Amino acid sequence: MIEVQQLVKHYHGFTALKGITFTAQPGEILGLLGPNGAGKTTTMRILTGFMPPSEGSARIAGFDILTDSIEARRRVGYMPERVPIYPDMTVEGYVRFWAKLRGVKQPHDGVKSVLERFNLYDRRRHLVRTLSKGMRQRLGLAQALVHNPDVVILDEPTIGIDPQQVIEVRESVRALAKTHTVLFSTHILSEAEQVCDRVVILNRGEVVAQGQPDELRRQLYPGDHLYVEILGGGVETGLKLLGAIRGVETVEPQGSGFNVLARGDVRSLISERVSQAGYKLLELRPVAMTLEDIFLEVVKRRTPPQT
User: Which residues contact residue 29 at a Cβ distance below 8 angstroms, ignoring those fewer than 6 apart?
Assistant: First the structure.
């Protein structure tokens, strides 16, 4: 549904995108992650037809965004980070306005359907200015879906809303995948882990990692990741003791204990060596790597050192 090949974008001597490539399949929620300036917004603006690429290509539902621009845009629903609001319109009037802009020939049924889908039908006569931020986010989703696009592109859809509304928006996004392909931009890594099927991590205009979170964990942390806490000795003693165990690759201080990365199951060896050294093992447990750990690791690997 989304095919991006070697996409490049230059701005007045600055290169915002440096040949990025990724795809999103039908029914998939693809997370677009990256720090500020990584190229997320530029990518979404190109895919939604707001600006052309300098080089490379992109296709939406099989239509090229340059040579078949109108057809490609017809198949995209876009919700920007700041939803364009017309405060003196009614909720129903606002969604109907977007339906007409997108060429929906008989908008009545479509407007009613999306308002019901996002629990806004009972507020259809309310002015947009009376809606809470969470309700406005739902309204943004409704306008993006009113023409029933193949692809939905969402830019930071949970920014600035309360926790309960965040849960509601996430549930709405997950439900979209039943009938749409979703490109979901966020800087909240835990959110991406809960919502997205796959992620693409951008940094300085390049794709630095992509895949399912579990896939990325295996690539970046192929061994067992353990937390170990020892009673007795000190930091240097612990580093030396644990680092000498066969199979242990790295040991780093973490709080009152150590993070240990090992090849294979070394728990029994750790227990044995700590006991032989005359210390007590207070804690030994596996640590699940989060998407945040993955994100920080790939960005750290690809960011050149400061001079």
Answer: 173, 174, 176, 177, 182, 184, 195, 196, 197, 198
Only one residue has tokens 């600035």, namely: 160
What are the tens digits of pLDDT across the range 120-177?
999 999 999 999 888 888 899 999 999 999 999 998 888 777 888 788 888 888 888 8
For residue 141, which of 109, 115, 179, 110 has the smallest C-alpha distance?
115
List of domains in the chain: 2-218 (3.40.50.300), 222-288 (3.30.70.100)
> For the packed helices 133-145 and 107-117, what is the interaxial angle rounded to 10 degrees?
140
The pairing of beta strand 181-185 with beta strand 14-24? unpaired
The answer to whether residue 5 scores a pLDDT higher than 80 is yes
Query: Which SS3 state, helix, strand or coil, does residue 144 take?
Result: helix
CB neighbours (10 Å) of residue 118?
Answer: 21
Give percent of the chain with pLDDT exceeding 90. Answer: 56
> So what's the pLDDT on residue 81?
82
Integer angstrom CA distances of residue 81 from 49, 78, 238: 16, 10, 47
- pLDDT (tens digit per residue) in 269-303: 999 999 999 999 999 998 877 777 777 777 776 66
Asked whether the predicted pLDDT for residue 306 surpasses 60, the reply is no
Q: How far is 67 from 91, CA to CA, in rounded Å?
A: 35
Q: Six-digit token pair at 53?
A: 């690429």
DSSP conformation class of 67: T
